[in-house]
Amino acid sequence: MPLLEIDAVGRSYGGVHAVQDVSFNVKAGEWVGVIGPNGAGKSTLFNILGGQVKASSGHVRLAGRDVTRLAPHRRYRAGISRSFQISSLFPDLTVREHLTLACRQNHRWSMVRGWRGDRVLAARVDELLDTWDLGRNDGVELPANMSYGAQRRLELAIAVSAQPSLLLLDEPNVGLTASECGDLRDRVAELGPETAVIFVAHDMDMVMGWSDRILVMHQGQLVADDTPEAIARNAFVEEVYLGAEPIVA
Amino acid sequence: MQIIANGISLGAVLFLMGSGLALLLGAMGVLNLAHGAVYMVGAFVTSTLAVDQGYPLVVAILGAAVICAALGLALERLFRFIPGRPNEQILMSFGLIYVLANLAQWIWGPIAKAPFRISWLEGAVQIGGVSVPANRLAIAVVGFAIALMLWLVQDRTRVGAMVRAGMDDAEMTKGLGINLDRVVLAVFVLGSAVAGIAGGMGGLVLGANTNQPMEVLLMALVVVVVGGIGSVPGTLVAALVIGLLDAFSRDRFPEMSSVMLYLLMAGVLVLRPTGLSGRTA
Amino acid sequence: MTTVFTQLRRKVPVLVLLIGALELPFLLSSQQESLLTRALIFAMMAASLDLAYGQAGLYSLGHAALAGVGGYTAWLLMVRYGHESFWYLIVAAALASALASLVFALVSLRARGLYFILVTLALGQMVSNLAQQWDFLKTAQAEAVTGIYIPSLGLGEDWHSGTLYQFVLVLTALGLFTIQRIIGSPLGLAFRGSRDNEVRMEALGYDVWRYRVVAIVLSGTLSGVCGALFAFQSGLISPTNIGVATSGLLVLMAIIGGSGTRYGAFIGGILVTLLQFYANQWSMERAPMIIGGLFIVTALLLRFRPKVAGALRSLTRGRVSHAVA
Questions:
Q1: Domains of chain A, each with CATH number or no CATH
Q2: 3-state secondary structure of B133
Q3: What ipTM was estimated for this complex?
Q4: Integer Rg of chain A from CA
Q5: C4, C29, C113, C222: least buried by Cβ within 10 Å?
Q6: DSSP code of C18?
Q7: Strand residues in B105-258 grouped as ranges (E)
Q8: What confidence tens digit (pLDDT) does each residue in C228-250 have?
Q9: Which residues on C lie below 8 Å from A102 (Cβ)?
Q10: According to CATH, what is the number of the domain B2-271?
């Protein structure tokens, strides 16, 4: 059984189809890149997978369970986690507080016990600060004062802290150097061979290098679903995406 | 029958107030809770001109509209000056309510003005064998005339198209080169003039007093929440329903009358959070 | 890195301040004691409002009504039903406010963004109107209900303005401590997370709606206690006390002191209550002009607050607070 089944999913806004009749499966451990020109429906597809947008038709199943109508926080608990663009970090929370928020879901509700006093949680946060190389200033730093690379790492750190079975990455490489990007990939790979990854990116080298499979979207529809090699040879893809239009990052 | 006449005339006043509030809020994202204070100024000005100075009612109300439009201009300057965040807008609104209400008390005295008595609107008019008080009929006629006008402006004119566009997507509207600041200014001035007219007409049955900024605002915002945003007909229907409900419950359960409105609002929110017209910002 | 010593050093000034404030009655007239008691009660109300307003970002303009439910409950049980134990009345007031806040939250959270503000305003007014019109909540057709007094603690205490002040001060310190614990807990962190980025929070597995309900209920419950204290101290409570104007003042208090910071709303509450009192002394007729002016000036200057706060912080080298811009 595939980990994720997308079955004829569509979403329209007042008669305009942002995503139309999209179907594909993702196996456990598979890395899938999603490409397509701006406005092709990639973001909407991601939002449908993450639950931020409700599909107007079709079904999304995770490990056989229908999650189409599930709210985002329930999908997270079911094993789908996602990253956003950089701007989605909490502007007024420190690195430590970000990680505490991310870890706390794995703990029980502790109402008024100060989190500084919760040793298990604090130890876990320290560990994350360390593994993700975010420990500058003991983690008492606001996102705005951090480098792009560090912001990206933080974004990813909070997305993967609960060991998701499916990770959605929204343009994870924006603003990163090639070596930082490689580092990011290694970190995601450390989640284990069972974790599936779906990512959106505009950088073709990266998409070719990261993906086991590539999905091409165009005008809200899935126009190709194949291996990187086949996609590179696909004439239609070249026409709608690779050749005809300038690639905007 | 009297109840229906009361309800429809109150509904007309509420529509005039609600549409201004809804336009600013829905189209422009401006939370101007001082809109009720503009109404109060309109009511007091009309009272001075029509009752004290003896000008014809039409002249008095036009005067109120002009003064309130100028007030709207000033309010727009103030709201333009602060960042468009809830904190600032809430504080600015409350401050304006305090200052304008106190200023009105200073100018017109602490005693509330009784409903304006205009000789040619005394008595009743016979419509299809039913007797309707003339002043209430006048309020309803003016209310519906302005409703029709607003609807035409919003539906048929360039400014209206801009307002509708602003309601759908402020960013995109800016991208299209529409000057939203101008539109905000236009809505502030027009909305305030309409609030002035509402104050003048409403004064025929409600008089003028310094509690009106809050009282009228609250009824108007119930209209906005119930009617939803961005449709003149939706606001109109909500205003009429609320006017009628208020008149009816004042008659039947006076102990609970003003609570009924809010219960209606709560009910609509729970059942249909987008309001009757089905749109929210 | 936090040693016992630095923890103590943080607490010493607070304790000194508290003990100093407890001794104040030796210096003050009974009128001043009453004024300070009133200021403490309102400051506590503002601090509890800020739990929802500043921490969770729920711009509520109906908060005074939730406090009012506490006040009216205390009045009802004391005057109508003859209960005279402080503990019984205060717990009942808290429970009634908790229930009212729950309903308040369930209805108002149906609306989003600026509409939430409108709905809270309307719901607050509804409670005030209910108190105004419903005969059950009136005595002898008067607006305000009277006949309530400071109930007995059962400890043989001797109530006068000085002891009441000291008692309220202790309660306020307890309340403020509770609020600090909530702000510093994971729950408080989740409030701020929901305030800053709802979508992100949900993608991290948080049921934002539930946290918002909790924020409103906690905030309403605490202010219900304040509402009861207000009624005990004043000997009366009226629909105007719990109306929209008071809710607006509470918001002003929270923002002036620094909404979303640890002690800001509380300090703002003391300042605004004192200012309002002296404005009324100066001129009963023109006091609204001063209060209104304060609202407007605050609105105009609010954007400079991060700068001022930053300067203050570097002066005192205080800890990183959770200030909102």
A1: 1-79+164-249 (3.40.50.300), 91-163 (no CATH)
A2: strand
A3: 0.89
A4: 19
A5: C4
A6: H
A7: 124-127, 130-133
A8: 999 999 999 999 999 999 999 99
A9: 204
A10: 1.10.3470
